[in-house]
What does this fold into?
Amino acid sequence: MNRPRTSIHGEWSSRWAFVLAATGSAVGLGNIWKFPYIAGENGGGAFVLVYLACIVIVGVPIFIAEVLIGRRGRQSPINTMVTLSQEAGKSKHWRLLGWAGVIAGFLILSYYSVIAGWGLAYVFRSGIGLFSGASAEEVQTIFNEFLATPERLLAWHTIFMVMTMVVVARGVRSGLEKAVRYLMPCLFVLLVVLVGYAMNTAAFGQGFEFLFKPDFSKLSQDSVLIAMGHAFFTLSLGMGAIMIYGSYMPERASIAKTTFIIAGADTFVALMAGLAIFPLVFANNLEPGAGPGLMFVTLPLAFGQMPGGAFFGTLFFVLIVFAAWTSAISLIEPAVAWLVETRGMRRLTACVWAGMATWLLGVGTVLSFNLWSEVKLFGKTYFDLLDYLTANIMLPLGGLFIAVFAVWIMKEAHVREELAMINKTGYRAWRLLVRYVTPVAVLIVFLNAIGVLQHG
It folds into this structure.
């Protein structure tokens, strides 16, 4: 069976449009909300080194594999896996890998939208100067009261989901591409402005040292698991997003070169976010390992104590919303594409159904911070369980099977055709990594995640 040469959904207008879109998918709350606080919790510089190693050894090779599978199939992840497994003469059960990616993206967006809603709320809170001169207790109280009010969380979650679906409903070029063409340059400019602001604080050197001076005594076995899980999360691997974006990639664009640009931009944003955040944390004698509250308690407090803090605090939360928005559209796109292809729905109808289902799942996350905060499964709240399940189990497993499919199942002639790598050494290195090194690394992390190695 020959693969479809064009996607029914359209195509990016250029390689750079794909770079912006895939970077937009990769650059999200993972870089600006999650990376700084997990780096803070795991000792800073040493964790950053492990994270960078995970990006190079595991993230980039799997990213290349996922894009080439997407471009070869030119359909939603589910239908792509059906087409390519038939093309290779293998079992149709590989479609389950497509399903796993779509479901992972669905689950992630359901709680991602809730956190992005907090960012939206804080744009306005910071804009009206709510944190100006506020004490640590006052800022903490504002956040606690916000989380304790499900109606407010639900309203912001709803607004963010509507924003996401409006973009996705407009299609590949008019919606996704147009959004990232404006949002991504704005995001980079905002980040540079905020780093410039942080450089003017007395603690910039301390923040820089924390981020780049390794202290390996702070690293634990869990730190490595977290670093690899985050490498998957931040590059949007194993959640169908990169596969569907790859399916819209122009035929002549180089997958390998494009991937390195995207991974570089994504990592640059994560490190820049750290440079923008940690000097403010240290300048105000705050705790870098403050956990998820770092962005919504520590930073508003820091901005509230500084000249021009209300303005720059507002800019920071606008940055958060832009980053979340570009990622959210990629998380829901695989499900929308599948509904259009398989159920024959109009794109707008598919968006409404997919958006409503994701929104409904997100209600559980909203309630896990208040009415359901005492309801726990395996010792975790609904939100914590979803976060752990997706980042540490579903994404690494999805990445593992993407690697296996690309080099053990697909015909090598087809892989070579998609990659079209002139550099034979580069191709062999990629194949060696994806064939042996990456699967072993992912398997070790996965077994650790489910507790098999905890008592070894």
Summary: The CA atoms of residues 241 and 330 lie 5 Å apart. The longest helix spans residues 309-343. The two ends are 46 Å apart (CA to CA).
